[in-house]
Model the fold of this input.
Amino acid sequence: MYSQSEENYLKAIYHLEESSEKGVSTSKLSEELQTKAASVTEMLKRLAEKKLVNYQKYYGVSLTPEGKSWALAIIRKHRLWEYFLVECLNFNWDEVHEVAEQLEHIQSKKLVEELDCFLGRPSFDPHGDPIPNAAGVLPEFKKRRLSEFKVGDTLICKGFSDASSSFLQFLDQHKIGLDTLVSIKSIQEFDESMLVKVRKSEIMLSKTATQNIFVEKNKESKIKEKV
Amino acid sequence: MYSQSEENYLKAIYHLEESSEKGVSTSKLSEELQTKAASVTEMLKRLAEKKLVNYQKYYGVSLTPEGKSWALAIIRKHRLWEYFLVECLNFNWDEVHEVAEQLEHIQSKKLVEELDCFLGRPSFDPHGDPIPNAAGVLPEFKKRRLSEFKVGDTLICKGFSDASSSFLQFLDQHKIGLDTLVSIKSIQEFDESMLVKVRKSEIMLSKTATQNIFVEKNKESKIKEKV
DNA sequence: TAAAATTTTTAGGCAAAGCTAAATAATTTT
DNA sequence: AAAATTATTTAGCTTTGCCTAAAAATTTTA
Ligand SMILES: [Mn+2]
Ligand SMILES: [Mn+2]
Ligand SMILES: [Mn+2]
Ligand SMILES: [Mn+2]
Done:
């Protein structure tokens, strides 16, 4: 239906719309997609003609409902494939993104639905990112950063917003992953770094790190510790 | 490494080299790939520059060792994905080809090897076509057509060379698939059509059909019938 | 608010991969 | 062996998606 390139633009616009208050600019897009601004302008004109985006010369771009639903379909595929790679094919969570970038463009309604079913209709991908359902609806979840909490809190890791290989490998090294329990032992005042306890060991996390770890308040930690 | 289009040409040349004695001509390729002869000529020049084919103006084309090994890698992926779709995702064997045409172009050594492993290193795809191993070596197998046999012979279906949806659906309707036992009851002299027995029922197969069904002599039919 | 800086768009090119129409080479027929 | 037919290649054009350099609009700064 749409080319790989067009799909990548839609996805990039979606992500930028999510992560910033203001409209999406040509330069932000060109940075995200590693292309030149001139190429972005051209593509935006094409996408606007196809009614996938609202584009006003010099004033940025936003997705139309049609564009948004297409973007969500691509993201759904991307995250389902990442889940498949980790759960079925022994990929580590820092190796999946590149391959998923290719697989997300495969066109087949049946393939996506059967894959979803085969995997047990997962709600979150290996990085804790929510997987939209077939209708494009994202699962309910609240995003709070580890950096927002205070000494004494015990939390469950639910996602990681910097998906770079190096950050994911750092987390691996310290055995921090999805559903890992983390309790805050102390916070340095001058740089807001945190000393946290993970299982038996204590780890120092920089503010950059704690801002990129999404957590949930742990309601059942007492119970689980007894079991 | 190579574009999807280039990969499709390599695959097409491979298949045509296999299925015909003589060299592969521009017109055969244009027919196979549903493009115009002029486009084929252009692509052949590009592939020759990249040392993937031997191309002599006006005298057809053949794969170099490099080209052949790349073609086999694509075919390996195609057939592994077809196997995956049928075995894991509830696809019927007449629905897989189109999706596999897309999946075969995904680039990731690890993906292919892990998929192969996950599937249990199958030797044949859902249509009975041999799957090359990682080194590009095809499993041993002998191709004989049902049309070569005579009344009284009992045979096991091992492959189907016309992979069109309609032929595969026809086989489905008559419950003929891989490893189905078929015995020849009679052969019409005037059109060489065959009356065969499959399980409890008798089916009439045209010569076109029997030429497209690959079989093996059944060594254990007596034993199996007793069990 | 006018000048400077920055961002965005336009203009003009390029490569891949397709097309049609015309030219040319190879093959078949007479 | 020449003519006719068929196959193949060349020439010229199109679209997609990218680029650089120049022009124009917007935003920031003074
Ligand atoms: Mn990813
Ligand atoms: Mn992810
Ligand atoms: Mn196939
Ligand atoms: Mn097949």
Remarks:
- Residues 4-63 of chain B form a domain with the Arc Repressor Mutant, subunit A fold (CATH 1.10.10.10).
- The CA atoms of residues 157 and 179 of chain B lie 5 Å apart.
- Residues A 79, 82, 125, 127, 129, 163 surround manganese (II) ion (ligand 2) (CB under 6 Å).
